[in-house]
Structure formats: C-alpha cells, structure tokens
Write a structure and sequence with these properties.
Layout lengths: L1 H13 L11 E7 L18 H9 L1 E3 L2 E2 L5 H10 L23 H7 L3 E7 L18 E5 L12 E4 L2 E4 L3 E4 L2 E4 L4 H14 L6 E6 L7 H7 L18 H26 L6 E7 L29 H4 L3 E4 L7 E3 L3 E2 L3 H9 L12 H4 L9 E6 L5 E6 L2 E5 L7 E4 L15 H13 L18
Parallel strand pairs: 1-10, 1-11, 2-13, 3-14, 4-5, 4-10
Antiparallel strand pairs: 2-12, 5-6, 6-7, 8-9, 11-12, 15-16, 16-17, 17-18
C-alpha cells in the first residue's frame, strides 16, 4: 500500500512516466562571402585578426575538408539551401535563374517543422517579384539584398524587407558607387540578427545570416581602384600594405567582430546552449576590387581562388558549435554544402527529401570520418568545367575536349602533381561519375566556350 501511495505521489508531481520530447535545437547558419580557407587565424592566418571566430573554433569543431556548393555565389547558395549539387540544382551560375515554387529549401523544411525562419543579408536566388525571393522559399522574414550584383554595394540606396524595397540614407553617383555614405549594409544585417534574437518566442528558430563581407565592390573597384569597401581600416590603418589589402583585412576583422556580437547576444539571451552555430563561406577567396589572395595567403595551402575548381576555389572553412559538439576538436570528415539539408533536418527531427547530401550530424558530434564521399561540381563561366572528389581522388575536367586531370588531395593538398597517367582506372571511374552526375538544364546547357588559359 505504501509503495502505491509513493508511486501516485511521483506521478502527481512529475506527470506520466515517459521520456520528454527532446528539445529541437535553434540553428544559426552564418555564410561569409568570398572568405578563403586561409583567412582565419584558426586555419593558419597570421596577419588578419579573427579572435571571435578563432574562439568559436576552440569552443567547437573545425573541419579541414569541407567544400562549398560552387566557386561563385548564387549556385553555391542554391546547393546549400536545396541539398542538391550543381549537376542537379536549379541555379548553376550567377545568371538570372531563380528558384521556382517546386524547389524545396531548408527553410521550408524547418518552417514546416515549427521553426521561426529568418534570412538576413545576401540572397541571390531570385529578384523582387519572382518565385525566388526568400519569403516564397520558406523564410518568415527577410532583410537584405536580393540580387547578387546589387550586393556588390556596401552603401546601397535601398535594400529589401520581405521582398519590398526599403530606401536607405546613402546616395549613389554611379551603379553601386556611393556619393554619400551613411548606412553600411553589413551593420544593418547584424542589427537585424540581434533584434531577431531579442524577440521572445516559444518555438525554435533558423536564422540564415549571410553578410557580404569580405566580397569586393567590383564597380567601385573599377571606378576608383579599390573596391574593398569598409568604414574604417581599424588596426590596419598604419600597416605598410597597399590600400586594398588594408581594407580587405579590415573587412575580415569586421566580419569577425559582427559574428562576435551575435554570439554574445546568444549568450545574453540564454540561447547559446541549445543553438547549433555553423560558420562557413560561399566559395574561396576573390581577386577583385584590388584584393590579392596571395598577399595574405587567403587560400592557405590550396591552389586557386574564386572561379576555380581547384580546392582554393571551393574548399572553405566550416566551424560548428552547439549541443553535442565536442570542443576544440578538428575533423577531417569530407563534406559539402548539399550536406546541410540532411544534417540540419536530422538535428531538428525532420525527414529530409531525397537529394545529393549525407547527414554530417554524427561528425558534428565527434564521430570518426565516415565512408569516403563522392562530390560533384560544374561551372559555366568561360566554358563548361567539371570537378569531382571520390575519396582521396580529385578529378578536374577544365574543357569538354580535354582529358581529366587527377590529383590525390589526401597527399597533394595543393593539387600540384597530375597523376592521371599512373591511375587510368581511377580516371575512367571519374569520367563516368562526371557523366552520371549531370542532369541537363535548359538554363545551363554545356557551352564549350574558349579553351582555358594556362
């Protein structure tokens, strides 16, 4: 009788004896613009200060073999949000192609699972009035640039909130070239993220924070010789460097400071323990607006930069911190942008649609490297090019009429030695893989173009 009374008392105090439903983690996905693998201190950078991102690496997991969706903006972001690589996804280049209603994005999947969803910064997957705007692709709210060309400007005369034009106090004297500098776009994006985190809500959130730093303002670069647009040079003002390099360093440190503000807000609001934070970049470092990726070693030990399919153009930083993620560890797990959809869906308890990705959640929690990955890229500027990674092997086909170049990137990270002649069987495997992975697209047919230089 005494045991029955005790049992009833426990049930009265605690409810039914069953496991509580696990709390879904918040997700903060931060996407830098044209930040190289070697631009952060935690990846070996010696001259540019990135203390907040270096601390993020110490508090979480740093990946060394993670790849972007493409070597330029729009297709990379398409791969990230749809879980499809550039042989299958809708947007395969920086053209006018937009996402359509039938495209399923990560934001839609998480919103339908009860998440509040928000997009702040650069979009690039659909202009105003199209089906590709963020609010028609799963985001409850959005603020920033819609068009990736408009996003070259750091002092634009307008941005877009929920697809509607919002005028700013800046004035222009030419396309993307300001005559009056008042409101710096990255500051506005950071302010929006902080305001979002300040709001009280009763459901988990997915914030896609996509600042434009450190992308160049190409139009200002052509007009004035320095397109590295930043309000001040900070600690780099007196460095004996060319002006664009001072400004480039200042942009990266400003990005770091902005991320620091957001991480501090998570802690202030008591959100950091249950927020999965991911930081990465849409492609490798750029050589635009006067910037020189060789000056700071922005690609680290990798070869190439933005618009190349060598690893310097597509291997990017990935830092992960959050529930279940071990601190201060380094992962050699190979992954790519199209893995974000299945990974974050699994973290949120959502069934992911069929796609090209593989969940990396086990790797996020410190598991050893899984089975070798098979990754695919295609790129259309200057002629059709393809790349693949199969386990340690990296294949490059830089022209439709040229043979595949082959590198063992596990041993030759700089892709210096073409070993195709020594491994014909691997070359045949990669050639077949390149054929199999490409679904033809009306918007992106194979255009042979000019034979590549060099």
């Amino acid at each position: 009788m005494w045991r029955l009374v005790c049992t009833l008392a426990v049930l009265t105090l605690t409810g039914p004896l069953h496991a509580a439903e696990p709390t879904k983690p918040n997700v903060l996905l931060i996407l830098a613009d044209d930040l190289g693998w070697g631009d952060l201190g935690c990846y070996g950078q010696k001259q540019i200060q990135t203390p907040h991102l270096d601390q993020l690496a110490k508090d979480g997991l740093r990946f060394t073999a993670f790849y972007s969706g493409s070597t330029v903006c729009a297709p990379s972001r398409c791969a990230l949000l749809t879980g499809l690589h550039t042989g299958h996804c809708r947007v395969r280049g920086n053209g006018k192609t937009t996402l359509l209603s039938e495209d399923v994005t990560l934001a839609e999947l998480l919103r339908d699972a009860g998440y509040a969803t928000a997009c702040f910064g650069k979009w690039g997957l659909g202009d105003a009035g199209t089906t590709g705007v963020p609010n028609k692709q799963g985001f409850d709210e959005s603020f920033g640039f819609l068009n990736h060309h408009h996003a070259h400007a750091y002092y634009p005369d307008h941005l877009f909130r929920d697809g509607e034009k919002v005028p700013l106090k800046n004035e222009l004297k030419a396309e993307n070239v300001p005559s009056k500098e008042v409101e710096y776009a990255p500051d506005l994006f950071t302010r929006e993220v902080l305001a979002f985190l300040d709001r009280k809500r009763d459901r988990p959130f997915f914030v896609y924070y996509a600042p434009t730093l450190p992308h160049a303002n190409n139009e200002r670069g052509r007009a004035e010789g320095n397109g590295m647009e930043v309000p001040d040079l900070g600690v780099y003002a007196d460095r004996p460097w060319p002006a664009p390099q001072k400004a480039h360093a200042a942009m990266i440190s400003r990005l770091d400071a902005d991320v620091g503000k957001v991480l501090a807000k998570l802690k202030e609001k008591g959100l950091d323990a249950n927020t999965l934070v991911l930081f990465t970049s849409d492609n490798g470092p750029h050589k635009e607006g006067g910037a020189d990726p060789a000056f700071f070693g922005s690609a680290g030990p990798l070869t190439g930069f933005k618009r190349a399919l060598t690893d310097g153009g597509i291997r990017v930083p990935l830092l992960v911190r959050g529930p279940g993620v071990p601190a201060g560890k380094v992962s050699e797990q190979v992954g790519a942008f199209w893995d974000f959809v299945p990974t974050l869906c699994e973290a949120a308890g959502v069934k992911a649609p069929a796609g090209d990705g593989t969940s990396l959640l086990a790797a996020f929690r410190g598991a050893a490297e899984a089975k070798p990955r098979e990754l695919y890229w295609e790129f259309h500027e200057g002629g059709f090019k393809q790349a693949a990674r199969l386990g340690p092997w990296k294949g490059l086909k830089l022209h439709v009429e040229e043979p595949v170049k082959l590198y063992n990137v596990a041993e030759d990270i700089a892709e210096k030695t073409d070993v195709a002649a020594k491994h014909p069987e691997v070359v045949r495997q990669i050639e077949q893989f390149l054929k199999d992975q490409r679904k033809p697209s009306d918007d992106w047919p194979i255009r042979p173009g000019a034979r590549p230089k060099g």
